[in-house]
Amino acid sequence: MLRNRVRIRAVYAAILAVSFAPQSEALTIDLQYPSSPLFSTLHDPVAKAAIDAAAFDLSTAVTTSLSAVTTDAYSGSSGGAEITFGFEFKYRDPLSNTDGHIIVPNATISSNVVNLFVGARNLTGNTLGVGSPGLVQLDYSQFSGGGTNPNGLPGAVSIAESKAQAAYKRGSGPVIGTAMGSATLGNVSADIDVDYGLAYGSISFDWDSNNNGVKDTDTQLSTYWHFDHTTAVAAGKNDLYSVALHEMLHTLGIGSSPTWDSKVSGTSWTGSQVQALTGSGANLIVPPTMMDPIGSHAASGLMSRRISDGAQQEVVIDPNITTGQRKSLTELDLAFLRDIGHTTVIPSFPSLPGDFNGDGDVDAGDLTTWRNYYAVNANGDADGDGDTDGRDFLHWQRNYTGTLSIAAVPEPNSLVLLLTLATALISLRRSGGRTISSRFGDHG
């Protein structure tokens, strides 16, 4: 779920040439629109193009290989007992204001495909969109079995479970949930538990900006949403492309799966892919709340490099979006995906010694990065020796591209001297500008 935020701030981003490691076949996000129009006849062509673009960009970056599911019935026999049980898909109805669900009785799907159903409806409060993966559940109409020995039932169920789980986990990706049930033969019962992965999902966008329970007019929608992903986001508007990208990440298991939950510890993240970029998992996840006991988003304001150009921006999967701005995928968004079982492209950015935050210049922001990681990890490493130390500071000093007049500084003899200089420079940098921020919606 994504809520909106108003923030006025300056962003300075240098365009970098970004290369990617060789990739396997991209994931296919198959978008389906069950209602017409989605928003309105006037806005739909541009709105759907933005949603399609978000799906294309995400599916290009995610290379998870998902096996086909070719049957929805699985059998097992053991010790004189046999059983067959079947499955069906279930996903949240994107058009329902009461969170109704749609059942897909034939629970099969092609390889490397995730089906997403997209709609618009009244979303309360400041919520711009909601997205979730679909479920797999037992279809009791397909149950059959019997035999001469009820004591063989647990073994028969175990065999059928193994077959079904191998199919519905689809070979890779996160575990989305567990289909549960039970079977009885004579006086013997056996539980059925089948873990499953990605297959279906849905996304709903808000079309009621003033929360009066009535769909907005075309004029209200055009004031509320920025539909065109090919133009800069207008001031005060919410970028549909950015919201679509955020909700699609939820449909792929980000903040919405047991695999995600297993990596969250309070506000810390335990996944190795993210920690390799940040140096620590601390304070990377939103604090738990009554409505969200296991944080389902990255921490608000968490920054990372865009994979498109290396510039710094908030990660897509933090809980808010700034009006008038657009988000695209970042290094950390992809690292979170890898930590929950996906495979992704690996962005590679040109290196400028001293550009520790990857924004294409060497300035006080990089000094802050160097200071934060001094003697902690290699995130402030400019000389390639695998750590962050005083020698890296000298590279920063020599390559400084900012506007401050900096006198030559001799080889530092202590961390105290370095941190004193760092503090002075940061104070100068901050005195030159102001950030004004007002929130009108916190995610829960």
From TrEMBL:
PROSITE patterns: EF_HAND_1
Any one Gene Ontology molecular-function term assigned to this protein's record: hydrolase activity, hydrolyzing O-glycosyl compounds
Methyltransferase listed as a keyword: no
Pfam families: Dockerin_1
NCBIfam families tied to this protein: PEP_CTERM
Keyword Cytoplasm: no
Domain of life assignment: Bacteria
InterPro entries, per database record: Dockerin_1_rpt, Dockerin_dom_sf, EF_Hand_1_Ca_BS, Ice-binding_C
Any one biological process term the GO annotation gives: polysaccharide catabolic process
Protein name stated in the entry: Peptidase M10 metallopeptidase domain-containing protein
Keywords, alphabetical: Signal
Organism field: Bythopirellula goksoeyrii
Residues in the signal sequence: 1-26
